[in-house]
Design brief:
Elements (H helix, E strand, L loop, with lengths): L6 E5 L6 H15 L5 E5 L5 H8 L4 E5 L16 H6 L4 E4 L2 H4 L6 H13 L3 E6 L3 H5 L3 H12 L2 E2 L2 E2 L6 E5 L13 H19 L7 E5 L4 H8 L6 E4 L6 H9 L4
Bound molecules: phosphoenolpyruvate.
């Protein structure tokens, strides 16, 4: 088992024009050396190459927010995993709830995209999480198992993923952008369940797969969330749009 630093990843979503992004990326890069964790910025596709250039030579990695499963072709408006990689990214977020629920993206599609990401040499950050309705119905853990089963590539012996090519992000849909977070016990139960589900397929290699928590993480709650067992980092939306709050979250990560 490899002991890894926590990973703090910023999902800028559909925010930022070049000038603001320039300042934000530079500030994050300037503060990155002091962070006790790995840092990743996921800007919109239009800014990947520019942010990658700004981060070049620093410890800050760059990721995309989605990719198409095909390598090229007549898919107007989409970008392929190879293009995301070519633009300078090392990671890509897949299956974010804003795509699953806003754009009808299925587990099957997320799996195909994950395979494409791996084929292009990208680390896939596969997002899973229950809706409020599913939570209220007591279905959270079943939903997580089913999303893992449907969204991760599989081979003859179970999941065909490892800690170098895949990160899981647990993001309760009702916690994203709402200011609400699950209790420590709920996060611990969800992350423990994800770890156990991965372990049932991968054995002890599952320990190498980072499981991020995402959903209204901010400087005020980051230390508590990042201290929970099996929480290997955070996927940060709103609070990643300010270098001060993003770096404050990173500073809260136990080394
Ligand atoms: C996200 O969109 O991945 C996210 C976690 O957003 P926020 O931090 O704003 O809740």
């Amino acid at each position: 088992m490899t002991v890894q630093k926590k990973l703090i990843a910023g999902n800028w979503k559909m925010n930022m024009l070049h000038m603001d992004a320039a300042a934000l990326a530079r500030e994050v890069v300037a503060g990155a050396d002091k962070a006790p964790c790995d840092l990743l910025l996921c800007p919109p596709s239009t800014l990947i190459s520019w942010v990658a250039e700004t981060a070049s030579g620093s410890v800050v990695a760059v990721g995309g927010q989605d990719c198409h499963e095909a390598d090229s072709g007549a898919y107007t408006g989409d970008v392929s995993a190879t293009m995301v990689r070519d633009a300078g990214a090392s990671h890509v977020i897949l299956g974010h709830s804003e795509r699953r629920h806003g754009l009808g993206e299925t587990d099957e599609r997320v799996r195909a995209k994950t395979e494409a990401a791996h084929g292009a040499g990208l680390v896939a950050i596969v997002c899973i999480g229950e809706t409020e309705e599913q939570r209220d119905a007591g279905e959270t853990l079943n939903v997580l198992s089913s999303q893992l089963d449907g969204s991760l590539p599989t081979g003859d012996n179970g999941f065909a993923v490892n800690g170098k090519d895949t990160v899981i992000a647990y993001e309760p849909v009702w916690a994203i952008g709402t200011g609400r977070t699950p209790t420590v016990d709920e996060v611990q139960a969800a992350h423990g369940h994800i770890r156990a589900h991965l372990t049932a397929s991968l054995g002890e290699q599952a320990e190498d797969i980072r499981i991020l928590y995402g959903g209204s993480m901010k400087p005020e709650n980051a230390a508590d969330l990042l201290a929970i067992e099996n929480v290997d980092g955070g996927l940060i939306g709103g609070a990643s749009l300010s270098a001060d709050s993003f770096l404050a979250i990173a500073d809260a990560a136990p080394a």
